[in-house]
């Protein structure tokens, strides 16, 4: 809900007078818009937010203020009628008479990133920030409007990304972010839907080529058995991977924010950041050993793992720290894979895939695996298990190469041998 008021500013202008401004507050953010009027403090009635009788032409000037306030509320009412969750910049542009169609992609995108950061959605903000920078390294024109983003431009952007080494999966991430910004711009009335290029340019064609994400149980044990004395610089990466694997594929962000208060008796109790689902996980022996290791380390924070080194970091500081440490984690996992002889791409997410696939290999139902991982849809779990299912089908197909058995032998063979 927005709040509008007309106030007298505390600071004097170059003429020694106090400017009269419109103040709008929305989602705890404030925008001040100058109205081109000023006066002495003695000419202003703070309670009624208007000029008092000591101001010359006070009746006429108060009528102007009233009309400006009515104009502000009319703009907000129109946003509400159009179901537009407007930003303060959009309000100012309407109030000052700037056309929405003149808002640049860069202006709109940077405003969106600010809102995401203020809302604490720092991960999404970082993703949009990275894609924005990528797009403008290609585009060069920082004054480009949404209606100027055409199918032809998207094709050229895709070609540019491929030339810099991006694969289908990476390009798909960039295009989905750009599409989300365009959709938001349409929703907020910045661009007409007729200019929407993603009706023709299909992001769905950019599907990352699958690879064997999951490790076998034997391969996981290779990581568990890494000699910590020989490779002390890889101990944290080893611990995090093994911890994730034995805690139902706990993701990196949740391990990073896991606190000792989440360890209660023989259980880990926490709320997953991504889905807000609550988990109660029994502590298995490998996890118990890792917890004991970090308990002895006696950190200065309440966190289990030494990733966040301060209890009072801001959301943006936490996001920056996560990005830095996750990059190091994945780099260390590649080193571990080379040392123990694993010839598969090894990243933080492989632990989660390995957990799901190995449970399935042991005969656990997909429904139960889905529940254990906190998936809201069994189709998500099925995507994790796709490689496993393909192996089962391939093995079944190989039976076609087996020597044929005659119907006669199937029916009478045992009787004759008896």
TrEMBL record:
Q: Does the keyword DNA-binding apply?
A: yes
State the UniProt keywords alphabetically. Answer: DNA recombination, DNA-binding
Limits of the Tyr recombinase domain: 210-397
Which Pfam families does the entry mention? Arm-DNA-bind_5, Phage_int_SAM_5, Phage_integrase
Keyword field contains Nucleotide-binding: no
CDD domains referenced in this protein's UniProt entry, alphabetically:
INTN1_C_like (cd01185)
Of which family is this protein a member? Belongs to the 'phage' integrase family.
What's the protein name? Site-specific integrase
Task: State the organism of origin.
Answer: Flavobacterium aureirubrum
